[in-house]
Specification:
homodimer, mainly alpha, DNA-binding
Chain lengths: 160, 160
DNA sequence: CTCAAAATCACCCTTTCGGGTGACGCGCGA
DNA sequence: TCGCGCGTCACCCGAAAGGGTGATTTTGAG
């Protein structure tokens, strides 16, 4: 990566040098301008890099991680929902998105990390069926990938 | 890689074009040398800062201060944690699984529902690299699919 | 300095996903 | 009885993901 940067830096330098050369033919004068520009550019490049380094150098994440010591009451979760027992999917959003019960099942299975084939076996249907459900689901969720679908569904409170 | 080459090529071209343009203006309007210098300075400052940021992106020195653990009864939800702003991944489990910081980054991106390509662009690396990281990650998590990896990581308290 | 871990990238090959299309049956309400 | 939503299934094809191997570079610890 750095090599690439250096390479292009040198390339740029060579190009600029070429430009200078060409210009030289026409404007024998005005050399100071080029030199001036180049110097300024170099200077501020270095300055910029230094700034960048400085700004990120202090970006040290001081994380004081403490593992749970005692467990009292397991508080709910980030998502809203009062939630009684296991989990209650947001019916409103479910309906407003037009997601059917079967599709929700597929969604949960997907979130569980199962492949289409595994889901098919688990639900006693063909893999093609799972794929159709999944496709419709993705469409309704505006998701392009199953991971994205999971993410979106989670945000929408459809799954835990 | 090709994209990177093209990108840098275009960037270089644009920069040179800009320089030329500014020069031209300067030559035509015998005006402020300061503007020219300022523009060049600004341009290269931004470039430098960007470079600096890019070269040192995940400059984090993690200070792990483990507190003796008593019990750990993470029953219901993956990682309650409650309040506490962003989220602190379980460093202990992270280490015990041998997951590197970079791999954790990839994991988070995967959980975010991004494709390998998107992750590659977002982290300024090639898609192959992302795939390598992902592969190692799946191996360490004993996951066969990315959705499963997300699920397992969530259970392990590695991600929110 | 040397060594190892981490990160990066490439290539090949197989499997899995996802999109698109079309089709069939069932139950329910108009 | 018809239409419709839902669930079911199939096939094709391109894209994405995943497995395996090998390689280089960077960086930090000893």
């Amino acid at each position: 990566m750095k090599k690439t940067v250096i390479f292009y830096g040198l390339l740029g330098g060579v190009l600029i040098a070429l430009l200078k050369l060409v210009e030289f033919r026409f404007l024998v004068l005005e050399h100071s301008l080029e030199i001036y520009g180049g110097l300024v550019a170099l200077l501020f490049s270095v300055l910029g890099i230094w700034l960048g380094l400085k700004l990120t150098r202090t970006r040290e994440t001081v994380i004081v991680r403490e593992v749970p010591v005692l467990v009292e009451v397991q508080v709910p979760m980030p998502a809203p929902v009062s939630a009684a027992g296991p989990f209650a999917p947001n019916r409103a959003r479910l309906e407003q998105l037009g997601i059917t019960p079967r599709e929700l099942e597929i969604l949960e299975a997907i979130a569980g990390g199962f492949s289409n084939r595994e889901i098919a076996e688990r639900l006693f249907v063909s893999e093609n069926t799972v794929k159709t459900h999944a496709a419709r689901l993705f469409d309704k969720l505006s998701a392009k990938r199953r991971t994205q679908a999971v993410q979106l569904a989670k945000e929408a409170g459809l799954i835990p």
